[in-house]
Structure prediction request, 160 residues.
Amino acid sequence: MVEKSHKKSIGFSVLPPEEILIDTQYTLTVNIADLHGQFDIDHSRLYHYAQRYLKGVAGLEYRLYPEYSKRGRLHLHGIIEFKKEISIMCFYDNMMDMLSKSSIEIDTISEMQKWSEYIVKQEKYMRRYCEKKHVIYEFTRDSVQPMETPRSKTSIEKWL
Prediction:
């Protein structure tokens, strides 16, 4: 389905920036190191995490979808596309900070139809879950998180 040939280190499988092409779509998987279990308690924290590292990168388009692993870990799968040369370097700079809190995979898409089906395989369940929690299902540059009631900062918010 997706070729995995560029292992850089444990928890980090990413094409090097010099192999990234403008206007080409790539896979993106983000497994957040949820040290305090807060993403599973409050899905909106996952949204804020994704937006923190991605939305500020000009010329980066993305669509990410949350899902649960077989072990119950919330993570993101999706597609990214770089529209400008500078967006590649900005993303890779942000990614270095993300790596202290996540494992990341970026690779070429060998079969778009299969990858597109794979990233939304839990759509039915996750859409219901997101509606119940009043959070968005699809993360994009233009996503707007629904307003939440104010609450005090938790340990994960201080950590991020």
Q: What stands out?
A: The helical segments are 38-41, 44-54, 85-98, 112-119, 123-133, 155-159.
